[in-house]
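Sequence, please.
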């Protein structure tokens, strides 16, 4: 960053996004928050804040279901696992949910696959329109990155979310976009040649691309994707005795490190 740019920003906040004129009004992406946006649902405001675009009712229903369909109140799922552990140690709710969301920003699930996944589908559709065959696109991606996010699942080969999200998108008239169709075409190839089935991330990313999200925007949108599954896990772990969530006895720890050492 140049010295001139730093001087330009000294003692002043330059923004095109919004400003709170305390005691008067609040501007949110050029609109009055308490007047023009007063009828917005929370998800509607969240999506508008990310993209600057207003979505249709059916588009918002689909975006909402993407969140709903991924909100599992299961303490065995890693972000929820951390949230429950925090509750068991008597952490506050905000800290427990925050650390759960942070853990969701992982390299093999959650944040990274969503950002990388939607980027791939956007590129794949563009390349296919230029005449590149789907098989070539897939194999090139695998050669570069060893994986295509959205295909395969660690614990179960079938992802129960897939048919529900696709069917709901079609009910809303949003299930025939070029990125979703690309994701389904890739799914057929991946199943036949790699033995990998499509998972919820591929469907979600493809639909996000069809709704016009960029990779950065969709990454932001999916940041709280699983948070609705966390409060039940927090509550249940908090109701149980402190420290009772999956305790491990010391004699169950299999240690293979350095033997006992004498300390001077």
């Amino acid at each position: 960053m140049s010295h001139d740019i730093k001087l330009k920003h000294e003692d002043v906040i330059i923004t095109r996004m919004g400003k709170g004129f305390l005691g008067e009004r609040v501007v949110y992406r050029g609109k009055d928050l308490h007047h023009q946006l007063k009828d917005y649902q929370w998800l509607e405001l969240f999506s508008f804040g990310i993209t600057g675009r207003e979505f249709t009712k059916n588009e918002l229903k689909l975006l909402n279901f993407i969140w709903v369909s991924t909100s599992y109140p299961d303490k065995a799922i890693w972000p929820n696992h951390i949230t429950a552990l925090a509750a068991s140690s008597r952490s506050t709710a905000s800290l427990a949910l925050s650390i759960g969301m942070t853990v969701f920003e992982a390299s093999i699930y959650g944040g990274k696959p969503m950002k990388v996944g939607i980027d791939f589908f956007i590129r794949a559709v563009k390349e296919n329109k230029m005449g590149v065959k789907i098989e070539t696109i897939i194999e090139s991606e695998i050669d570069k990155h060893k994986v295509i996010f959205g295909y395969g699942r660690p614990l179960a080969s079938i992802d129960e979310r897939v048919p529900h999200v696709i069917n709901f998108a079609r009910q809303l008239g949003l299930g025939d976009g070029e990125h979703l169709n690309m994701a389904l075409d890739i799914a057929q190839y991946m199943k036949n040649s790699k033995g990998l089935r499509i998972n919820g991330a591929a469907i979600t990313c493809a639909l996000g691309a069809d709704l016009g999200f960029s990779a950065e925007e969709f990454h932001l949108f999916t940041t709280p994707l699983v948070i609705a599954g966390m409060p039940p896990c927090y509550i249940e772990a908090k109701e149980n005795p402190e420290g009772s969530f999956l305790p491990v006895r010391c004699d169950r720890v299999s240690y293979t490190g350095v033997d006992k050492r004498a300390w001077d």
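The mean pLDDT is 94.
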